[in-house]
Amino acid sequence: MHLKRRPAVSGLFYPSEPGRLRAQVEGYIRGSRLAPDPSVFGLVCPHAGYVYSGSVAGMAYASAPDGIGTAVILAPCHRYPVRTVSVFGGESYLTPIGEAVVDRAVVERLSSAGYDWIPPAHAAEHAEEVQVPFIQTRWPDASIVPVLIGAGDPDFCRVFAADLSSALSGTNAVVIASSDLSHYHPLADANAMDGILMDDFRRRDTAALARHVADGSSEACGAGPILTLLFYAEVESGGAFDAEIAGYSTSASASGDATAVVGYMAGTVRRRTND
To answer: Can you name the residues that pair with 245 across neighbouring β-strands?
Structure first.
């Protein structure tokens, strides 16, 4: 279907004026003071309004290698229920910067593997949309594959990750898990909860990460995307990868309100180069 998905949160989560948007994103990436790492092949990025989480997202994008051809966005569902996954089957995503074209070959491989497109699920979802201007700025020639994940079940995420790896065979891809962390807790509690999730991520402990989110010890609206990224990294690297934290902050840094904050993490998965 030749559908160009129009912006839903332009002017709300990020600037609607093209020059201002591009300059802001470039500033977040440059301001991270991090250099591209050729061994990085996956990211965890927050998806709040840029004034709150843009600097943390910039840390993740700055850490990724140059020359990416396909950027897969794994995002949670905030506005429309998706039981398993929905792979966007339209033509492109539009932002004030321009048009990000969908990688049709990857989408068709996922469709052939049984993964459907649920059009209304993508219509107003900010968790994938806010990643697109970063992708357009960091890799102007990259195509995208937006995927909404409604399932946080580790068994499902493991299967989907293997199918995603097959679909991306032969591409120069980065997989981006879109997720914020704890929501609306006092700053000290948020730091403790987010510390648990980041420790699970660093240890690549998918079972603990899923368990802690399920029992409320930690929070991540994109737990399914993060689990899928870790399983994907396992398949892609044969287990020879590291999961690292490139940055962390909370909404208190921007708002000054420490009574009810949201946590933001920039994470990377990278191939081990000295094994």
So the answer is: 267
Judge contact between 199 and 138, C-beta under 8 A. Answer: no
Alpha-carbon distance 75 to 38, whole Å?
24
Mean pLDDT of the 77-81 span: 93
Range of the domain at 170: 4-271
Q: How many other C-beta atoms can be found within 10 angstroms of the C-beta atom of residue 27?
A: 13
Element at 270 (helix H, strand E): strand 261-271
Angle, CA of 197, 202 and 203, to the nearest 5°: 100
Provide the β-strand partners of residue 99.
Answer: 94
Residue 54, SS3 per DSSP: helix
Q: How many domains does the chain have?
A: 1
User: 257, exposed or middle or buried, with CB in 10 Å at 0-12, 13-18, 19+?
Assistant: exposed
Helix, strand or coil, per DSSP, at residue 79: coil
| Spatial contact of 135 and 71, defined as CB atoms under 8 Å apart | yes
Question: How far apart, in whole angstroms, are the C-alpha atoms of residue 171 and residue 192?
Answer: 38
pLDDT surpasses 80 at 194: yes
Measured CA to CA, the distance from residue 224 to residue 172 in angstroms comes to: 23
Please determine, for residue 1, whether its predicted confidence score (pLDDT) is greater than 80: no
Structural contact between residues 39 and 243, judged by C-beta atoms closer than 8 angstroms: no
pLDDT score for 274: 66
What CATH number has the domain bearing residue 151? 3.40.830.10
Q: What angle do CA 126, 77, 223 make, to 5 degrees?
A: 105
Q: Please tell me the number of Cα atoms within 13 Å of 122 on its side-chain side.
A: 26
Give this prediction's pTM. Answer: 0.97
